[in-house]
Structure formats: C-alpha cells, structure tokens
C-alpha cells in the first residue's frame, strides 16, 4: 500500500534537466524528507516500480515510465561512481544526498535481474540527533548500566539482534559518546555505514585478504584504546576480540542472536574459552525496533486477558482487579496520514555480566540457565521492556509482539 507522506508536491521543474534527472532528484528528496531508510528501484518486464522503506515498512511510492528505466539506473550509477557499462555483475557504491538542510550518506547497490538492474539506495542519516544514546529508547535504568559499561577502560560490550534492529546505530552512539582527543578509537566494518570524524574506520576487503581478524591484529599494533568490530562472524575474530578486551582495550561488537543470554552461548559455541569470555565480558544488550504510535491520534485501549496471555504477559491481567491491563492503540489521523504510527524506537534487554553470570559461563551453562539467572537479577526480557512502552503509549502491543516473536 502506498504511503501518502511520499506523495507531496514535486520539486520545481528545471528545463535544463532531463526527465530522468528531474524524476530521480524528486524521488530522492521526498524519500529523504520523509525519513526513508531504503529506496528500491525495481525493473519488471512491462513496468518500473519505486518503493521506500519508512518506519520499517515498504511502500510503493512511484511507477515511473518504463522508458525511463535505463536512464534512471544510469543516473544513479553515475552519482554513486559505478561502472555504467557493467550490467552483468552486482556493484556497490556511495553518494551523498542533501535534503532538508542536512547531508545524508547513501550506500548504493545494484543487482542484475531478468529485466534490468535492481538498485537499492540505503540512506544513512549522520545527523547528531540520530546518534545520541539518550534518544535511542533505553529505559533510564538500562541507560545507567550501559553508560557505566562504556566508561570502563577495558572489557567487551556486545549488541545483539537480527538484521535491521538498529545495532549499528547503537554502536555508533556509544562511539560518539566515547570520541575524545585522549582516546584512540578504531573500527572495522563491512562496510562503514556512517563516517565519524576523529575515529579511524576501516572497511574489510576479503578479496585482498583484509578480514575482520586481520584488521583486528593490525589495530592492536596501533596503540588503540577502543575497538569496534562490525560483527563477530567466526571463531578467529571472536578469539582475537575477546583477548583484546582482556588486555586493556574496550571492545564493542555485534552478534546475531535472539536475546542477550544467547550471545554468551553463541561465543562459547564458537570455541571461545569460557575463562577468557568470563573475564572479558562486561555487558550484552539485545534490541529490536518498533514503530512509535502517533502522539496526535493514539487512543487508550484495554489489554484483555487473551491478548496478554498470547504475549506471555498474563500476570499483568491476573494482577489487575478487572483482569485487564491498559495501553494504547493506533488510530490514524492527518499527521500520521492514516497509519497510526510515526517514527521508530528501540526496545532493549540489557544484561550486565554479574559474578553469577560469569560463573555460568565458566560452567558452560546453556541459554536457558543464563536467562534464568539474568531474570533472578532483575534483567527484563525484550517483551517485558516493550510492554513498558505499550503502557506509556509509545507503541502498541501488536508491534511489541511482532518484534519479539523470535
């Protein structure tokens, strides 16, 4: 379904520009203004479609004339400095877009399809407001724990979650807070999504032999204070990162697991020695992104026993005299253009490595045992953290359930 927010007034016509250039400029500007994270240019046999991902949901925003297909693709490739003659192989490039008074880095990728090149433009908003830890959605108690961890001189902090859950932004927000003239900070990424002045950023290049592990080894000879590894993908990278955290460096990285306890067992399963992990790990935070309810039209809603039981939160209703909890639901208005949602926020599980959890690592406990210990220590699950936002009217129960079903 189309998102009406995109269908605003087009840019003024410039007779000096070709139709493809005018249409592309208009599409990029409108999508950037509306906060799109990705723009998809998709060729089909007799049609051409442009979709944008806004607040995590894809919307069809335009169907340019099929005759402009090649011209639009060529223009995008020129802007991102790609080989316009190469249409048989995927390519990756970058460009910068200026919209609403701010500069936006864009990552461009092409993919040959049956009827032409599909191109996806990922918009990476580098504005300072996007990289403030306070604005990411942590609960105050969680934020205190995170801030204490990133101020430690050494140790490992892990951020875990599926693709698209905001892990990279969380790491960049931490790095931005740590960035100061008296710290040497280096990152290795695939690729570096946001450029951070004052931080040494490296893109891996596996064809040339520059892997996460190779870069980490090189960093350790460069007098680092803080290291960020875009993702721990293999045993070698995990081992080097953990040992770096043991030897006087603060190491931040990401994993793909469902929750914070799962990150611990993932590293143990990779072959990291339990003693090394227990002595290095400071904190694991798991996260998801949920859409925020529109503040102009959200409405109070009773959360009945059936809904809460389905969410695994029936204790909320059972503790209520009426058998109901209370939250908010989406309605839809002119401000949010009928969707009921506007923007996104994070929900988090923040698990510090307590002495008891370290002992669980040493005994190579499973995810369930570590999760049970974290629960005894008051660590909320992602769903419990999400319910707080439901009760405050920040999001809906449906959003939280959808985000935490895995």
UniProtKB/TrEMBL annotation:
Pfam families: T2SSE. It comes from the Bacteria. InterPro entries: AAA+_ATPase (IPR003593), P-loop_NTPase (IPR027417), T2SS/T4SS_dom (IPR001482). Keywords: ATP-binding, Nucleotide-binding. The keyword Ion transport does not apply. GO terms for molecular function: ATP binding; ATP hydrolysis activity. CDD domains: PulE-GspE-like (cd01129). One of its GO terms (cellular component) is plasma membrane. The keyword Nucleotide-binding applies. Residues 220-234 form the Bacterial type II secretion system protein E domain. Belongs to the GSP E family. This is Bacterial type II secretion system protein E domain-containing protein. It comes from Pandoraea thiooxydans.
